[in-house]
């Protein structure tokens, strides 16, 4: 009986995790991760960062973040400088941030390792 309950709980847990990632859930995952890791807080209040969806493909959701210069956020309200670009791998939900190498090429770094 205990084995049946364990298997049932395992299957329920697996099915809950197997839900496909949507753009909305990917955005929520990204914004909550940015807050948990306190990214940008040394120079930017959390409510002064806008995250917007970009063009997606079959493997990734893409997002960009921008400084918000209104609603009590400092800066020229006519500007909204880009802060970073991100992608979230659909199957694994791994978040990466775009990095420019010294040679001008682009690489993607795990957000867990990223320090801004």
Describe it:
- The protein has helices at residues 2-17, 23-36; strands at residues 49-53, 60-67, 82-89, 95-100, 106-110.
- It has 116 residues and is an alpha+beta fold.
- Strands 1-2-3-4-5 form a five-stranded antiparallel beta sheet, covered by helices on one side.
Concise overview:
The protein has 116 residues and is an alpha+beta fold.
Kindly provide the radius of gyration, computed on alpha-carbon positions and rounded to a whole number of angstroms: 18 Å
Largest sheet: number of strands, sense, barrel closure: 5 strands, antiparallel
Structural class: alpha+beta
How many strands in all? 5
Distance between the termini: 51 Å
Give the percentage of residues in beta strands: 25-35%
- For the biggest β-sheet, the strand order reads 1-2-3-4-5
**Low-pLDDT residue spans:** 3-13
Query: What is the H/E string?
Result: HHEEEEE
- What percent of the residues sit in helical stretches (DSSP H or I)? 25-40%
Number of H/I helices: 2
């Amino acid at each position: 009986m205990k084995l049946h309950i364990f298997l049932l709980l395992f299957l329920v847990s697996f099915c809950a995790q197997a839900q496909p990632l949507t753009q909305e859930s990917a955005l929520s995952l990204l914004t909550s991760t940015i807050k948990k890791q306190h990214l940008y807080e040394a120079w930017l209040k959390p409510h002064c960062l806008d995250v917007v969806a970009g063009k997606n493909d079959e493997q990734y959701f893409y997002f960009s973040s921008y400084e918000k210069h209104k609603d009590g956020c400092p800066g020229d309200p006519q500007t909204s400088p880009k802060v970073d670009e991100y992608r979230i791998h659909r199957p694994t939900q791994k978040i990466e941030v775009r990095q420019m190498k010294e040679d001008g090429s682009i690489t993607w770094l795990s957000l867990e390792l990223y320090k801004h």
